Amino acid sequence: MTEITEIIAREVLDSRGNPTVEVDCFTASGSRGRALVPSGASTGTYEALELRDNDPKRYGGKGVLKAIKNVNEIIGPKLIDVDCLNQTLIDKTLLELDGTPNKSNLGANAILGVSMAVCRAAAQYLQLPLYRYLGGADARTLPVPLLNVINGGVHAPNNLDVQEYMVVPAGADSFAEAIRCAAEVYQTLKKILTAKGLSATIGDEGGFAPNFNSNEEPLELIMQACEKAGYEPGDDIFLALDVAASELYNDKKYEFKLDKQKYASEELIEIYAKWVDNYPIISIEDGFSQDDWDGWAAFTKKLSKKIQIVGDDIFVTNIQRVKDGIEKSAANAVLIKLNQIGSVTETLECIELAKSSGLRTVISHRSGETEDTFIADLAVATNAGQIKTGAPARSERTAKYNQLLRIEEESGGKFAGKEVFTRTF
Questions:
Q1: 330: left (phi > 0), else alpha (psi -120 to 50), else beta?
Q2: Which of 231, 219, 225, 213 has the alpha carbon at shortest distance from 166?
Q3: Are strands 249-250 and 238-242 parallel, antiparallel or unpaired?
Q4: pLDDT of 347 over the 50 cut
Q5: d(C-alpha 384, C-alpha 340), whole Å
Q6: What phi and psi values does residue 19 have, to the nearest 5 degrees?
Q7: Active site residue ranges
Q8: What is the rounded distance in angstroms from the CA atom of residue 252 to the CA atom of residue 104?
Q9: pTM to 2 decimals?
Q10: In the predicted model, is pLDDT for residue 148 greater than 80?
């Protein structure tokens, strides 16, 4: 009764109003799984290919009918009568069908949609929550959320070079308390911005997106919001950054246009070191370009004992690139995005590699998100300890946090808290 009987894909909309892939998987038992595939704006060069139609007459070229056709006419028929409980075989079959290193034939969005939908159908067949199906009895850790409260870079129409300014309520006693803390800081920050005559409009990930006088100013205002909301920065709540430095890198220099400065790698390290000294920053993601391995290694050597240094564009959830990073001591944490690599099995393998090598893992959303909550269950299933999925606002973001609230209540799991980070408290 676990045989797949039908797989159907359709074109739906993501949080930016762009098309994306949704897939339904049906089995002989009547169990069903549905998955929606997210999309990134700040994408790494080495990510698996997201297949778009490039037809200017539909959705400005962003349509996904090619990917839909690949699911309905190529992938679906191939998987009929295959056991939905054999995720490894399913994903291996998908990779063999595609036959390219970056999934450029069928599209990572087509492959991932099927992979996730099958996984959900299997969990439903077994009458298990998704996190329990993926992680078994060992799935017990509720992640610390890293919540993007100020947006910049390509995620917002403002002048900030840094892409994400996040609050990290690691001092909370539970996930529920962590979300309450972050939501209260978020609402307080909105009042502070409004009082200063700054816009409270939001960017792609729900964070506020006004113009600022410098890239450091948001850190100061977030600190004020934390204190005014009744929390102690550096004890109850911490700060984190996603610089998305690949977007700033040109001719071996990092250009921060707002600050009217260009930095060589060694100079940028000193800027980060100053920020870490002045603010309770515990994590910096993509502080250097995806091709600046020397910059990454120098940064990690200098600050890895104080903060978490997260690789995103440099690793793109790719096992070989993570192995390269381990050999070069390029970071002490890996950002995990399902659609960067394109299948559930490969994602799990990448997480396992990172953990076995002593690297932390941060499960992540994309800027173009959906109401799908797969990553919330994935974070608990793998005991990742951390998740970033945007501000405590906009339903495509809060859907993940709400799912984690349900999981905490149902599972009785332990909140990861401060222990997951490297900084000495």
A1: alpha
A2: 219
A3: unpaired
A4: yes
A5: 17
A6: -65, 150
A7: 205, 337
A8: 30
A9: 0.97
A10: yes
